[in-house]
Amino acid sequence: MSLKAKLEAIIYAAETPITLDHLVQLVKDSGASETTTADDAGIKLQVRDAIEGLIADYSSPDHGVEIRQIAGGYRMSTKPEHHDVVRAFAKSLKPPIRLSLPALETLAVIAYKQPVTVPEISEIRGVDSSGVIATLLDRKLITTAGRKAVIGRPILYKTSKEFLLRFGLKDVGELPSMEEFEQLVAQSFEADLPAALEGVPDSTGVPDNGAVESPRAEREDDASQGDRDNESVQQAETSTSHSQE
Question: 0.70 cut: is pTM over it?
């Protein structure tokens, strides 16, 4: 088996991005024929060249996957142009993991302002962010980065390797600019708006999609009908009384 084929198999099988040094060590331990007479520097160069060759091979439009450098290592992933079909497939397998809007806001502040403290995050967002920090730590999307050298020495937070893995970033330098980020958010809201407006009642109180009204509306209608029935009974009793007189 060629060195290129071995590296391809390792990167494919790896659950997380595998570093160049790790690949070099695996190649040395396997005794690949191309590297048996080379020193460490020579083996590292051969491995790097083989990886670059694999990256070039998978860049062909005939391949739906590619090898990318993510979070300090190499990983095989689907190409962006196939995002829609892969996303549809992924949704059929299991529900996507979602974060609440406060959690996303807090994560964005940390990503762009890191390292940052909870008071600084709360000041930017305008609300207390302590509870959201606990959620992001539990999801391993952020981690601690020491303490700030001020009174009280508050804990500093930064994004984690899991954050890079989840968002497919090589490092935080690949984050979009604030202008691009705002455009992405706006596009996301525009895409979700039609679905969110389905079934919203118009000015007449009738849902656009023909859905039945809420139980509360039905109860109010029942109450109104009951009042009308009571009025009819009272009028009938009054008429009877007048007739007897």
Answer: no
Give the chain's domains with CATH numbers: 3-90 (1.10.10.10), 101-184 (1.10.10.10)
Residue 209, classified by CB atoms within 10 Å of its CB into exposed (0-12), middle (13-18) or buried (19+), is: exposed
List, for residues 50-86, the tens digit of each pLDDT value. Answer: 999 999 999 999 999 999 999 999 999 999 999 899 8
| Residue type present at position 3 | L
What is the distance between the alpha carbons of residues 2 and 32, in angstroms, rounded to a whole number? 8
* Contact yes or no for 74/53 (Cβ under 8 A): no
- Between CA 31 and CA 50 the distance in angstroms is 16
Who contacts 7 (Cβ-Cβ below 8 Å, separation ≥6)?
23, 27, 47, 50, 51, 54
Per-residue pLDDT tens over the stretch 131-190: 899 999 998 999 999 999 999 999 999 999 988 888 778 888 888 877 776 676 566 556
